[in-house]
Amino acid sequence: MAPGAQVHRIGMRDYHHGLLHGHECVIALTRVGKAAAAATTATLLQRFEIDRVIFTGVAGGLHAEVQVGDVVIGTEALQHDMDARPLFPRYELPLLGLARLQADAELSRQLAHCAERFLRGRASRVHRGLIATGDRFVGDADTGRGLRASLPDALCVEMEGAAVAQVCHEFGVPWAVLRTISDHADPHADIDFLQFLREVASVYSSGILSHYLRT
Ligand code: ADE
């Protein structure tokens, strides 16, 4: 954030409001999990004049094509731990009548383009598709296997995206999720995750978003 950004402390989070590459932006760390992400998003949308939301962070790869260091842009997001059966079908968000939340097509397309440009010359690839969200770090073989079996088209798993998406959907605000793959959602996930966070994740997120803001 450029010098002169204002910091608003609301609900135990800092919202940094200022100019980035000439665009008025608000940046906040949601913290971990669906409730934390939903609370942050609701505050963002109610306290600031927000016309689009981009969530960025890391995720565990689920799909065979998705490797550590790749970037996933969610075209849709689903809460894999939402299960109100027999009242509602598995994954359906009660009273919303849908399970898969659709990202803004144009925003996602632009981010994918920026990610391709940023990653040019690196081994990493860009994927677009379903992101699975739940309040669980997937670091064991059984959970990863279960997710791959029940959601074969899910590219990656994380803990916030579909919660941000639900709040944006309810407020009618376009959203996108951009994730860098830090691990394979398996028993090595915690070690890969911590090493990756230190070495790559923030570089990718800020690099791709800088491209987006400059275009
Ligand atoms: N974020 C990064 N890696 C993850 C994993 N394995 N499970 C859930 N969220 C993650």
Quick structural gist:
The chain has 215 residues and is an alpha/beta fold. It has helices at residues 34-47, 105-119, 141-150, 161-171, 189-214; strands at residues 6-10, 13-20, 23-28, 53-61, 71-79, 101-102, 126-133, 154-158, 175-183.
Helix-strand string = EEEHEEEHEHEHEH
Task: Give the overall shape, derived from the CA principal axes.
Answer: globular
Largest sheet: 5 strands, mixed, barrel
Radius of gyration: 17 Å
Secondary-structure-derived class: alpha/beta
pLDDT averaged residue by residue: 93
User: How many distinct helices?
Assistant: 5
Q: Taking strands numbered 1, 2, ... along the chain, how are they ordered across the largest sheet?
A: 4-8-7-5-9
**Distance separating the two termini:** 17 Å
Q: Please mark out the parts with pLDDT under 50 across 5 or more consecutive residues, or reply none.
A: none
Description:
With 215 residues, the chain is α/β, with parallel strands linked by helices. It is 35% helix and 28% strand. It is built from five helices and nine strands. The protein has a five-stranded mixed barrel. A three-stranded antiparallel beta sheet has the order 1-2-3, with helices on one face. Helix 1 (34-47) packs parallel to helix 4 (161-171) and helix 2 packs across helix 5. The longest helix is centred in the last third of the chain and has 26 residues, at 189-214. The protein is globular and about 50 Å long.
List keywords for this structure.
single chain; 215 residues; alpha/beta; 3-stranded antiparallel sheet; 5 helices
